[in-house]
Amino acid sequence: MTRSPDEEAGAGAGDLSPSARRVQDLLDAAGLGHRVVEHEGSTRTSEDAAAAVGCAVAQIAKSLIFRAKDSGRPVLVVASGANRVDEKAVGRLIGEKIERADPDFVRDSTGYAIGGVPPVGHAVPPLVLIDADLMALDVIWAAAGTPNAVFRLTPADLVSMTGGRVETVRKG
Question: Which of 65, 74, 99, 157 has its CA 20 to 30 A from that of 91?
Answer without folding.
Answer: 157
